[in-house]
Each structure stands twice: as C-alpha cells, then as structure tokens.
Amino acid sequence: LKSKLPRVGTTIFTVMSTLASEKSAVNLGQGFPDFDCDPALVNAVSDAMKNGFNQYPPMTGVPALRQAIAAKIEKLYGHSYDPATDITVTAGATQGLLTAIMCAVHPGDEVIVIEPAYDSYVPAIELAGGKPVLVQMTLGADGYAIPWDQIAAAVSPRTRMIMINSPHNPTGSVLNLADIEALKDIVRGTDILILSDEVYEHMVYDGLRHESICRHPELAERAFIVSSFGKTYHVTGWKIGYVAAPPALSAEFRKVHQYNIFTVNTPVQHGIATYMQNPAPYLELAAFYQRKRDLFRDGLKHTRFKLLPADGTYFLCVDYSAISAMSEADFAVWLTSEIGVAAIPVSAFYDSPRESGIVRFCFAKQDQTLQQALQRLAKI
Ligand code: PMP
Ligand code: GLN
C-alpha cells in the first residue's frame, strides 16, 4: 500500500509512556492526569446510561450539551454562538482539528503552522492534500514568542488557514492582546481562516486572561475554535470535545463530521451536559493547576535545570543545556531510563530537525508523584 503519511511513525507520547512503564519511571511525559475525575461526573454519566440514553444522539451532539457549551462561551468570552448551528460535539479535539482541516483545506492550499506544534497538525494538513508552511517561535530570555512579522511574510495567495494554539502545548505560553492585534492585521481583508486550538483554555495562571479567538469578532467570524473536555474535567480517555464556528463554517464542518464519525457517544454527552451546570470545576481549574505548577517549579529550582515560563497548560519546559549536550530525544530517554523520570523532547514538536536543549514535563500529577519526580531529578 502506498502510504498517505510516509513520514509518520508511533507518536512520541506513546513511545515515552511505553518506555516509562518498562523502566518504572515517574511518567511526566505524555500529558494526562494521574488522578481521577470528580465522582459526580462519573455518576452523571452512569445515570445517563441507566436512564436509557444509549442510542445514537443527534449528529451534531446532544442539544443540552451544545446549549451548555454555548452558555459557557458566552459567559466567559462574551461571544454568542447558536447551539443549533454553531456548536458541534466531537470525539476529542483531535477529531475536531482533523475535521476542520478536512472541510476547509483543498489540495495545494497552504496552512501556516507555528512550531513547536502539536503533533497531529501537520499530518492532518497532509491528509487533506494541503501544504504546511512552518514558522518557528523565537526563544528569548522571556521564553517563547510568535514572530508575527515572519507569519505575515509566510502568507501567500494560497494561504487558506492559520493554526493557533493558546495556551500552547508544549511551551506553556499564552497569546496576549498584542498577539491578537498582530493576527488581526494579518488576516484583515483576506479570506484566511483561523483554526484555534484552545484545549487548555481553563489553565491560565498568574491572573492572565485566556484570549479566546472568539472574544474578538473580526477573528471569530473566520475561526473554528476547538476545545476538549478531556483536559478540563481530567478525563483524557473519554475523547470528547467540541468545535465552535459561525454557521457557514459549521455547515461545512458538519458535512465531513457526518461521514467521518457521525455522532459521539450519547451517555457521556448527557453526563457532561448535567455536570456543566456547575461552573465551579472549570472556574477553579486554573488555581488547582497553578498550585501544582508552583510546587513543581519550586522543587526544580534546586536543580541545574533552567526553567522556562509556564503561563498556561499543564506543561513546564526546562533547558538542560547546563547538564548535558545530548540531543533532546536522547536526553529524554536517558532521563527516563537512568533517572526514572519521563519527559518529552520538544524536538518532537518540530517537522524539521531542531535542537534547543529543552524537554517538557507534565505537572498534571498528584503532589506525591511530583515530589517523587523532584527527588529523582535532584540527583542529577
Ligand atoms: N491539541 C493539543 C494542543 C493537545 O495538547 C491535545 C491533547 N494532548 C489535543 C489537541 C488533543 O485533545 P483530545 O485528547 O481531546 O483529542
Ligand atoms: N496531548 C498529550 C500531550 O501533549 C498527548 C496526547 C496523545 O498521547 N496523543 O502529551
């Protein structure tokens, strides 16, 4: 069979999690919590099953869930999406991203991707026959930043879409208003679409504000916004999320969604719709994770790692160049095998070879897990 994705192998997340379990390492690699979700959420889903919500839901998602999503977005970001036409429930953010790309990108179209980038973006563009145009973030004393002048220079008549991810995996950086203004300047007067990956929307720290693309009407009108309940409710294995987009974009999205997946499992949708009536779990998430970030960061201050800023997400990047000259992939394997703490090489988020001497740790872990990792890291 002639491969459609000849360059794709096993994802780095699977590789590092497998190695972590072989070596009995503390797994701070793949991003997922090592603690369970709220029992009230499990009860809401099991009640839905017991109450007979076990057949196909509507193609676009259970109405109560779409309403709850639209209400949350309006309350937090002030943008009004119509749950009937603008919100589609997806099998996680990954499907939302792929479906948005499949419906919008035609063969030969260019999609601007900012590196480091989540690993599903480039293959999704290639599957659609599109051409990824890669622009790398700059890395300075204040951490990673988006070079908007280079993005403007990368725009061509073939540019169909710009992909944005804030809060950003793996760097933990978040877009600010200056970034938003720069993006507005680039797309104004063009028909360029925005695909905004906001799966970490509720994890922004130190009083910063999540700049959802939908806060800004001139961007919202051309944007697909993707989020994931896996991150927000500590249920990465449930694979459920949503895409919000204006009616014309949602209509095309739904054409692909209908034949890609058709529907997303019914009882989980009902359970989340009930659970979302209480905003506390997502409103309290930032404080919950900021405390874990600080615990982990304070512990790392006693090591030779140089810490990069982590304004959002549940990831913290560290520069290990004072410790080793190994490549990032080799260092991550060494750290897992010899020190007993798994991490992800940031080079895995680049399409072309790039070494910065940086690895990513995930701090969505119980305090005792973080403390155990810190004890091991202190020995380096
Ligand atoms: N985008 C980013 C930036 C992510 O970090 C992840 C999860 N690792 C996803 C998308 C995929 O989310 P989901 O598990 O809901 O498909
Ligand atoms: N998004 C998670 C991460 O960045 C992993 C998801 C996956 O395993 N594909 O670690």
Automatic annotation (TrEMBL):
InterPro entries: Aminotransferase_I/II_large, Kynurenine-oxoglutarate_AT, PyrdxlP-dep_Trfase, PyrdxlP-dep_Trfase_major, PyrdxlP-dep_Trfase_small. One of its GO terms (cellular component) is cytoplasm. Its cofactor is pyridoxal 5'-phosphate. GO terms for molecular function: kynurenine-oxoglutarate transaminase activity; pyridoxal phosphate binding. Residues 25-377 form the Aminotransferase class I/classII large domain. Keywords: Aminotransferase, Pyridoxal phosphate, Transferase. The keyword Nucleotide-binding does not apply. Signal peptide: none annotated. Gene3D superfamilies: Aspartate Aminotransferase, domain 1, Type I PLP-dependent aspartate aminotransferase-like (Major domain). CDD domains: AAT_like. NCBIfam families: PRK09082.1, PRK12414.1. Belongs to the class-I pyridoxal-phosphate-dependent aminotransferase family. This is Aminotransferase class-V family protein.
